[in-house]
Design brief:
Elements: E1 9-11, H1 20-26, H2 43-50, E2 55-56, E3 61-67, E4 73-74, E5 77-78, E6 81-82, H3 85-88, E7 92-95, H4 109-114, E8 119-120, E9 125-126, E10 131-135, H5 137-142, E11 159-161, H6 164-171, H7 175-189, E12 227-239, E13 242-243, E14 250-252, E15 258-264, H8 284-301
Parallel strand pairs: 1-15
Antiparallel strand pairs: 2-13, 3-6, 3-12, 4-5, 7-10, 8-9, 10-12, 11-12, 14-15
Helix pairs in contact: 6-7
The protein binds flavin-adenine dinucleotide (FAD).
The site of flavin-adenine dinucleotide (FAD) has 21 residues, from strand 12 and helix 8.
Length: about 300
């Protein structure tokens, strides 16, 4: 379909997290399971590249660890959900393919996810993938696990086992490592501490924690079985790099001059947040603000064309 424009064009076509080719070319690490709908296919990026736009922040996304519920689809494409409480509440940990913890699980989702991109030079691969959230039985009776409410019958997308060893075998991680990880985490978690990754030391870590849990809202030992494992994927709620814009939302060329009549807002514009994620609204806030600025600027520049 071709759409003509007499005067100005404001692009708002989203990012490129559902474009496999661009993901592999540009991003700093794996992004295989976006939490967005499969509509952000990088069409806008292709368009601005075609007209010589300057590009920035292409290696970054609004990263988020995601989980999959088999069969949740949009027009035949598997969807993914963000995981928050499952990795921040007491009685849970997240481990890598070797059964070892690798990050402060309760940190903000953007920074937690960057640990998925750790590349091991000896094994020559991303050793923190696949990742697994491990929870105990009490967790499932107290807290919501993705869509499963406390006390509900355990869904079949959770891997279940009576012992940690059996669970490790089921998810194909080293059983000895997983047992050691749980034991050493529990030693300190009993006192609400995590000397290894400092989980629960910052109040930000408590955001998805349990305020009624004694000592620390986001740190507590893995208790009695049965135990459960939930696979975690490297996801994002959108990509963060694209066309460079100015204070009016105008797309700039490689000489930092506005490309006449072309604007970009939202994730089709390079985010002003760089690699960070200061807080809720870091994507929608600038999208709305620059949408307003771009709209006003475009209207002022436009001349009246009688219909
Ligand atoms: C689960 C989830 C939770 C989130 N929570 C928050 C939050 O709490 N706070 C926050 O700030 N942000 C949040 N976000 C992020 C935020 O929703 C997105 O960053 C934002 O919607 C991006 O806006 P956009 O307009 O750039 O793109 P989109 O909202 O993706 O819209 C782009 C539109 O362009 C259309 N399009 C694409 N290509 C073409 C084409 N060639 N022709 C015509 N149309 C096209 C698409 O179909 C789509 O409708 C969340 C995202 C997700 C997925």
């Amino acid at each position: 379909m071709n759409i003509g424009a007499h005067q100005n064009v404001i692009l708002a076509t989203g990012g490129f997290e559902w474009n496999e080719k661009y993901r592999q070319r540009f991003l700093r690490g794996p992004l295989t399971a976006p939490a967005s709908l499969p509509l952000s296919t990088g069409d806008g990026l292709k368009m601005v590249m075609k007209v010589g736009a300057d590009l920035a922040n292409l290696n970054e996304a609004f990263w988020v660890p995601t989980v999959k519920i088999e069969g949740e689809e949009f027009e035949g494409t598997q969807l993914y959900r963000m995981t928050r409480g499952e990795r921040s509440l007491p009685g849970s940990i997240m481990v890598n393919k070797h059964g070892k913890r690798f990050v402060n699980e309760a940190a903000n989702y953007n920074d937690t996810s960057k640990a998925f991109h750790y590349f091991d030079a000896v094994e020559y691969g991303y050793i923190n993938l696949p990742a697994w959230i491990i929870i105990d039985d009490e967790f499932t009776s107290k807290y919501t696990v993705v869509t499963s409410l406390p006390g509900e019958e355990n869904p079949d997308w959770l891997v279940k086992a009576d012992t940690i060893t059996e669970l490790a075998n089921k998810i194909e991680v080293n059983p000895e490592n997983l047992k050691n990880t749980v034991e050493s985490y529990n030693n300190h978690a009993l006192n609400g501490k995590d000397p290894e990754f400092h989980r629960g030391e910052s109040e930000y870590n408590w955001y998805y924690g349990d305020p009624e849990h004694p000592i620390n809202p986001s740190v507590g030992p893995i208790g009695k079985g049965p135990y459960y494992a939930l696979r975690v994927y490297p996801g994002a709620i959108g990509t963060k790099g694209d066309a460079v814009i100015n204070e009016h939302g105008q797309v700039l060329d490689v000489n930092e001059e506005p490309i006449p009549s072309l604007y970009a807002v939202g994730n089709v514009a390079a985010s002003i947040m760089g690699p960070g994620y200061p807080g809720a609204g870091s994507t929608l806030g600038p999208a709305v603000a620059f949408g307003y600025l771009a709209g006003n600027h475009a209207v002022k520049k436009a001349s009246y064309i009688p219909g």
